[in-house]
Request: fold
Amino acid sequence: MNKKNKTIIYRILEILCIFIWVFPLIWLVVTSLKLESEVITKTFSFFPENPTIANYLKAFTATNILRWLINSIIVSIFTMGLTLAIDAPIAYAFAKIKYPGKSLIFWIVMAGMMIPPQVLIVPLYLQFNTLGLINTLSAVILPRIALPIGIFILKQFFEGIPNALEEAAFIDGASRAKIFVRIILPLGKSAIVTVIILSFINTWNDFLWPLIAINDTLKYTITVGIANFQGTHGTEYSLIMAGAVVASIPQFIFYFFFKKNIIEGIAMSGIKG
Amino acid sequence: MAIPGNNNKRDGLLFSLPFLLIYIIFMLFPLLYGLFISFNKWNILSGANFIGLKNYALLFQDPKFISSLLNTFEFVLLSTPPLLIIGFLMALAINSKSPLKGIMENIYFIPYIFSMTVIATLWAWIFQKDFGIVNHIIKMYGGSEIGWLTNEKFAMHSVVVATVWWTAGFNMILMSAGIKQISKEVYESASIDGASPLRVIFSITIPLLKPTLVLCLILQVIASFNIFGQVYVMTGGGPHGTTRVLVQYIYETGFTYFKMGYSAAMSYVLFLVIMAVSFIQYILIGKNDE
Reply:
């Protein structure tokens, strides 16, 4: 076989693989544009005969999907913000401040990466029940803000910032807090973006814990809401698919803007949902 | 750095404190509290009743626990090889000279950004028995419909397919990062020596990628042991409990039947299994060809 033929075969194989991989997504969108009567039928046609956005209108008006999206956005924003607020200072302390017990504390914190979240659901439930926080969004947020992998990424980055910058600021009479806010955080921007993205992926896909912590339908996050869609809407597949599309829009936007950072973040951390 | 007015001891602790408080309250304490709960007969209404190791003893006489554990192992064994192999092939493809590599990277990775319940809902529809597209295609070619999610023979495999589609792209990214670190010169000298592409993959890429591959394997096995959502949405653990996995049984025991002590005991067994399997993999593969 000559080289040209080989190249053509490779391209055809690649196009085939791309098609297979993207097909479920096409099918998701196509189904969401069909009438229900077209979906539940023994006679099969790929494209919708009369493309309709009725399912989307119904998803917004007759289901709680908008509410769930808002809940998820609130949960994500608070989780991302609080994660950074507690992870960044300790990462800075690990990287730049000499204090007693540091290496022991560091290893205890890193060991936290080994704990699978599933192990904590029973004790966390009882804890939050005692605190009276079950069925609130705080219950979904609080157990997710301590992110050891985030500390690791930030610490690595902060270590690369030259000490001379800090020393100069100290001589000018700046306090630790001031140095942290004015020098360290702005220089650590790219690591911070990575940590925020990891936190977002974690939170948005979190399923088991929110399923347990929330029992009021109106307080569901989108991930839990979609899981229960099938239970409440049975065979309305085109409506369910429209809901699934709507539920995915925020992630799509996120991917569009932060693709590079998301991929870097995964490559750096190897975190898995 | 000795600078007047700057107290390292005080600053170090102050900067560490917020995280440590949250970490202790929501991770370390529950980890120990859960262990304590597992030594109790603990109903959410009746409260604690210390019974020592009895929950653990009961577990191994519970056929539902045994079958959930075996189903979990089945999922791990079925899902890990395709996830790693497909992820690896994808990583090769997006690091080739193909003009399509940019498109491939996007298309292969995109399923991973969807939330798992969206993926599971979509695949439940694709595999739906009466109107799903897979059965439509089978019928077009004269076959008869298959209960992908309701037949014991196929249900777990269907869950595996959905999972592979969802997260193979994640492994692709990890492996691709590893491939990019292999120096170009190694490949150049191989091509000067006239090595075939297949030979290059097996003699250069795979051996040099080994640390990344081990990392992927360990992460993948941990992730597969923790499977829950796909099963919860696609099959609900059915048919006849043949896809019920451990996390699902932990969830049902704790939050449908409110047997907190028993549920906690199971989650510790899962934790131990995951630790043991990761450790064994690390020892076996980490050492093997040094």
About this structure: Residues 36 and 261 of chain B are 9 Å apart (CA to CA). The radius of gyration of chain B is 24 Å. Chain B touches chain A through 90 residues (CB under 8 Å).
